[in-house]
Design goal:
With 82 residues, the chain is an all-alpha fold. The protein contains 4 helices and no strands. The chain has one domain (18-81).
Length: 82
């Protein structure tokens, strides 16, 4: 089997990059969920505006990642499997 055939079979660098992007996206999801929990906690009431700003920024980054790395297809297929 030639190198080219091996690359096509494994998906190559693009699949690797998409996988890494997906891992980072999942880390962002955890961060977003944590920030949402902190917004609901009275302990963090004094820094509510800071947490809300971080949440907005995190959601904006997540949206950019979805677009740039075409993660919509991958995320939809993951949800269908669950």
């Amino acid at each position: 089997m030639s190198r080219e055939e091996c690359r096509k079979k494994r998906g190559g660098a693009q699949t690797f990059r998409r996988g890494r992007a997906l891992m980072f996206y999942q880390q962002l999801e955890v961060k977003r969920d944590t920030l949402k929990q902190q917004l609901d906690t009275k302990t963090f009431a004094s820094i509510h505006p800071v947490i809300a700003g971080e949440l907005k920024a995190t959601e904006a980054i997540m949206e950019e990642f979805r677009v740039v790395f075409a993660l919509d297809e991958v995320l939809e297929s993951e949800q269908e499997e669950v």
